[in-house]
Write a structure and sequence with these properties.
binds S-adenosylmethionine; about 300 residues; Rossmann fold; SAM-dependent_MTases_sf; transferase; about 45% helix; methyltransferase activity; alpha/beta; methyltransferase
Length: about 300
Amino acid sequence: MTRHDDPFVRYLRSKEAIDDRALHRPTLAELGDRLGRRADSKPGEPLRVVSVGAGTGAMCRRLLSWGVFDGHDEIKYVMVDRRKGMADEAAAAFAKWARAAGWAASPTKDGFRIERHGRQVSLTYMTSDLFDAMSALPRAIDLAIGHAVFDLLPLRRAVSTILSRVVDGGYLYAPITFDGRTAFRPAHDADDDVVAAYHETMRDGESAGPETGSDLLSVLPELGARVIGAGGSDWVVHPEHDDHERVFLDHILGFFEQSLGKSDAVDDETLREWLATRHRQVETDELSYVAHNLDILAQLG
Ligand SMILES: C[S@@+](CC[C@H](N)C(=O)[O-])C[C@H]1O[C@@H](n2cnc3c(N)ncnc32)[C@H](O)[C@@H]1O
C-alpha cells in the first residue's frame, strides 16, 4: 500500500527540484560521457546499476530523463533502501513518471520493467540494509550510486562494501553528499550554536559525520577508487519560495528539531525560539537556507 501522506516521502519529493538545480553538471557530464564510451566498447551488454539509500528512486528517473543512460539499450537497475514502505512509494512514483514520459511499464516478479523505443530498464527494489543487500549481490555492478546518503553511513565500511561489488573499471557516483556548511538568513543570534550542535549530532553512532563529502575525497582513493570528477552541489533556497521549497524548508527545520531535541547542546528555550522564528520566516517567505554538498564520481581500478 502506498502512503502518500508519509512526511518523509513528501520531503523526498520536495527535494527533487532542489537537487535538480544543485547537481554538479560537469561531474554528471563526465559520468554520461564515460557510460557512453562504455556502451560503445561493449555493444549489447546491459548496464548494471545499484543505488543504495535509493528512497523513491528519484535519481534513476532523473538520469533516464536527462539522457545519462542513453548509450545503453538495456539497463538493470537495483534500488536498495532499508526503510519499509519505500518500495511501494518508488513503484507509484515510477508508474506516474513512466506514463508521463511515454515508457510502457509492466510488472516483473521482483519489480517492474519499463520500455520505450526499443530500450528496456528492469527495476528491482530491495528493502534491506545496504550491507545485507551487498552480501547478496554478485560482484557485477557497473555503476553504484549513493545519493544523499553517505553522511548517514559508517563511511569506510560502506564504501569498501559497495566497491567490493563493483567490477574493475566500474564507477561509484555520490551526488549531494553533505559537506560541512549550513547557513540560514536572516541571521539569528543562536545560529552559530544551533548549527554547530546540529553538525555534531551527525557524528552520532557510526554516521560518517558532517564533512562526508571532503572525507570521500580521501577515503575513495585509499580504497582503490580514483576520483575522476567532483564539485559543489549546494542547496540554495531563497525567497520567494514555491510550494516544494516551503515543504522542504519545514522538513529541514524538522530535522534540526528531531536531532537537537535529543541533545543537550542547545537549551530548550533557545531551540524553541530559534525554531519558531525560522518556521515563521518560512510562512512569511523570508528564510534563506544554504547547505554545502559535494558530488563525487570515482572509478575502481
Ligand atoms: C536522505 S534519504 C535519500 C533518498 C534518495 N537517495 C534521495 O535523495 O531522494 C537517505 C535514504 O537512505 C536510506 N538509508 C540510510 N541508511 C541505510 C542503510 N544502512 N541501508 C539502506 N538504506 C539506508 C534511508 O532509509 C533513506 O531513504
